[in-house]
């Protein structure tokens, strides 16, 4: 198997979105509606304005099948002591096909999007990690912050 890494392009979006939906299902998300149109709108807008980047892992021996995904959204908040630039990378869409796990693919993808966040001027990168991903992120250097909370409008 030959694994190659490349940036997400608009022609990859339908497959990328299906992988994202599968990832959310695997993590136990409840499906209240079809998320595909919202995801398509988000990715198209933010890829265009440069506030979303993604790297893909593809198996070139399997006709370029996408076997791993990553995503990084860039947001800006007022600067604070642990992030003086106020620019934050929000990591998402980290997924590896179950048949390709434990090969270092996620770590390689993570390295690419973290480098993109640094180049964008981010002072930190944040993620809400699944149980499966905690070890990957901890080994990479992420530190768990137990203060994360979310309010959802209903």
UniProtKB/TrEMBL annotation:
Presence of the UniProt keyword Ribonucleoprotein in the record: yes
SUPFAM superfamilies: Acyl-CoA N-acyltransferases (Nat)
The keyword Ribosomal protein is assigned to this record: yes
Keywords, ordered alphabetically: Ribonucleoprotein, Ribosomal protein
GO cellular component annotations of the record: ribosome
Domain annotation N-acetyltransferase: ranges: 3-154
InterPro entries on file: Acyl_CoA_acyltransferase (IPR016181), GNAT_dom (IPR000182)
Name of this protein: Ribosomal protein S18 acetylase RimI
Source organism of this protein record: Treponema bryantii
